[in-house]
Amino acid sequence: GENVEQHPSTLSVQEGDSAVIKCTYSDSASNYFPWYKQELGKRPQLIIDIRSNVGEKKDQRIAVTLNKTAKHFSLHITETQPEDSAVYFCAARTSGGSYIPTFGRGTSLIVHP
Amino acid sequence: DAGITQSPRHKVTETGTPVTLRCHQTENHRYMYWYRQDPGHGLRLIHYSYGVKDTDKGEVSDGYSVSRSKTEDFLLTLESATSSQTSVYFCATQETGGEKLFFGSGTQLSVL
Question: In this predicted model, what pLDDT tens digit does every residue of B84-94 receive, in sequence order?
């Protein structure tokens, strides 16, 4: 099955700095890579996703990049704000079989004012 | 958020007792999932359902069973709760052909 590794487990930045979270996956058949944000005490919610036919996707201050050859993808947050503080989960889903994504272990992002 | 309700929101129980968590959705989504969330482990899939009475095991299914008799309800049962099952449990749904998961608000379960 798919295996997703996520790093770092904790990331501390100053407000206004950029933050980068990296994930690697094992199954070359994976073709969909979502990112979920979970604020403290809340449910995870999808913030951005990318498919294997695209190398990069942006949405305001967040972007995701995908390197299929190296089997890794990253979340980039620019101009971080305190409200970006949360746990971020990456996931990967294969093109065949079930629609179930495999999640990474999460990154706790702390943005200091 | 996608009309997903989990109950109860919090539960404290004793080792060896049965516990049932309920997930109710009003979106008519075909797929439903139960995850547990533990520090350092992220979201781990317990069981999932791809339709009424169609369920299958996830990566951490030991000690858990599920049932789905109606599209809108997905029940997770701990037959005999153990302390290792203390966790936050999330239900999620997904529509047919869709990719996004919609999560419920979670159930905090403590097994003493």
Answer: 999 999 999 99
